[in-house]
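sorry to bug you again but im stuck and you know this stuff better than me. theres a chain ive been looking at and ive put its sequence and its fold in token form underneath. id like you to explain what the token line says about the fold, in plain words if possible. anything you notice is useful, everything is just below.
___
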Amino acid sequence: MSIETQQELATDFVREIVARFGLDATTSARRTDDDGIYISVDGDNLGLLVGPRGATVEALQELTRTVVQRHTEEHTSRIVVDVGGYRERRAAALRQFAREAAADVLRTGVSEALEPMSPSDRKVVHDTVNDIEGLETASEGVEPRRYVIIRPASASSAQESSVISTEEDGDRSSEAADLG
């Protein structure tokens, strides 16, 4: 199935869900630089579609992916669904939080375990902290309670740890990159 067909199927599905919720919103889609699909729902009073801590938009995204996957036996494109710009606001807040936690680890030299997060949220934290000299990250735990640990990088293993943490989340990076 072509990416155009996947995009059309995904967009139609999201539009139908929005209509079933009785919300007045516009749904648009675009291809991303990495040949993914980004679907945006925009309008007023869309909190119901975002849900607590983004749970509803995450579920909508997973349902959309599942619908597209069920219609093809081929590899499907990465699909991101955003509602009212929630994902970018969440990513910005996470980047700020990660920088603050990283500063604490640099200042104290003591590792810090963060609260459990979704794969996409962990990806934002890993990407943010791994750009800071002297720190490394790792994901630990089991879904849905998987979390990030920020720790000082040892001089000899800093480069190796950065590669390891990237590889650990490599399989999830397509999920995590869902922030768009």
